[in-house]
Amino acid sequence: MSCLKKCGAPSIEELRASPGFPTEEDYKTGNIAVIECIEQIPCNPCETSCPRGAINVGNPITNLPTIDLSKCTGCGICVVKCPGIAIHLMDINYNEDSAMITIPYEYLPLPQANDTVTLVDRMGKEVCEGKVEKILSSKAYDLTKLIKVSFDKKYYEEIISIKRI
Amino acid sequence: MTRIKDHPILGKDTREEIVTITFDGKEITALKGEMIASALIANGVHSFRYTEKHNKPRGIYCGIGRCTDCVMIVDGIPNVRTCVTEVKDGMKVETQYGRGEWKNE
Amino acid sequence: MGEASGKMNNYDVVIVGAGPAGLAASIEAAGAGARVLLIDENNKPGGQLFKQIHKFFGSREHKAGTRGINIGTELLDDTEKLNIEVMLNTEVCGLTPDKKIWIIENKEISREITAGKIIIATGAYENSVQFDGWELPGVMGAGAAQTMINLNRVLPGHKVLMLGSGNVGVIVSYQLMQAGAEVAAIVEAAPTLGGYGVHTAKVARAGVPFYTSHTIKRAHGKNRVERVEIVQLDSNWKEIEGTEKIFDADTICLAVGLTPMVELIWLAGCKFTFIGSMGGYVPVHDRYMRTTVDGIYVAGDVAGIEEASTAMEEGRLAGISVAYDLNLIDDAQAEKRIEEIWTKLDSLRCGQFGEKRKTAKDRILEEGEGMILCHA
Fold first, then answer.
1. For site-directed labelling of A21, which of A107, B53, C20, C374 has its Cα 20 to 30 A away?
2. Is Membrane a UniProt keyword of this protein (chain B) (predicted)?
3. Chain A closest-CA separation from residue C78 CA (Å)
4. What is the per-residue pLDDT for A1?
5. DSSP 3-state assignment of C276?
6. Rounded to an integer, what distance in angstroms lies between the CA atom of residue C210 and that of residue C194?
7. Which residues in chain C (225-254) have CB-CB distances under 8 A to chain B?
8. In C91-157, where does DSSP find H-type helix?
9. How confident is the model at residue C352 (pLDDT cuts 50, 70, 90)?
10. Which residues pair with C101 in a beta bridge?
């Protein structure tokens, strides 16, 4: 039984079986977009928003997105454009001990830079604490904020978001 | 807080103009232009009427004027759909018991 | 019926319902030069579009990545540019196959208008389910809660239990959290979740638990919902005793489907067909959105429950075909636009979710096929 259709969130196995999800080798390349889109829904803003043409959906628009990570600069525009809030950036080489995740965020209140926040996994379970490095907002983001949080890199595959404050 | 003062997408609520209505004789404040139902909810009122047979409380149900669960007596007129009727200064809103009666008829 | 002074009584096209379908239809019809009247019973146009605060799916042509509220604003701007007459606070109480329409303005003035063509875009209403305590204040449609938080800006409750995991259930759950409420659980009677995985995933990561093969057994509370009891269902949808769980909640939202608001279409004498996955009885129509009654068209959820994005495209189809049937645009122009829109509709109706809607829509169209000849 699919975890996605039972618990609401995809399992790591379901994600690994999808074409947009990075391999372990991919993660090592630096700050990359992690696409967690595993169902054929009619949608392609990730493709059309990418300034480098790194993401491909093609025709029909229900194809699952694929990404050419050699073209991905980790700019984050696909993260805010994805209507499914299904993309984040992950940089496992942020520094020696920490990884940095960049998440789309649409709740209030917003954390502040340097705040300590709790990071959660795909089921909302608290995993570890992290530090808010930066909060980005821009007119092009259309009110979605990007929050950059650093955390212990050993959890990079589990972490998906922060706990609401 | 029941009123959503700030919202990540809708922003701050900038409505300021206030009107006063009465609910079962008690004065409550409402925002100009809002629906009676939302003014009542903002004031902690959730039971809008009581059913005829079993005298059970009812509140909003569909919120778009279709189901008539939220009807009340407004300025003496029964069966007014409060979810699609705007507040007006001095409006008298009363809990409706049963089917309501039209006065002066 | 009383005559209102100084007002037009005759229009090329009257559109009932100023939601996404009606607005899009009005823009196409008026853009082609038709004299259009758009009627809505609410005090603002837009239908349910202005409570859709999330970014829409689709592609660039479908305005994907744009929030529903902004799409609504764009549509309203277009209707203003075209000087389309919009009559708000106006109820359509009846219509006849010869296209006489009985309206009541502001609950005061009753009058009759006539139209060359009528487009009915009245949308849909939410279904309900019954359980012990379902009548308690605090039990409401998910759409009702969405109206309260996103249009009226009040929280109908602080702790919500959602019944139904289709897109409406999960999107409204997310929006309730954005508005500051807590979602206690999402309960789904079917063994698997219904909505898009990306929607369920974003509420799952917010810590909302999902209960599949469960339903609400009863709502507890004196004058308002205070607690909700859910129970597991077996493979025959029977409650399994001893599996009850109780949640503290002051609100229960029901997201258990929609039914097309077809009353006016019945009144007009149009032929219907029953398709459960489209919401029940839906008017038979052709690929130009023409019903079986000459001059009466349908668009949007009233023609089968789908989404705002498909409703807008269907509205455009209806607007163009009305313009064509009024001889305002020629064959080639009409065919070209209609093909373009069908391409967009087809792209919204594919994939594991859209395919079902396409099959259902095809059934409606098949029934409508014979009638195309009558119109030609």
1. A107
2. no
3. 21
4. 65
5. helix
6. 11
7. none
8. 142-146
9. confident
10. C95, C113
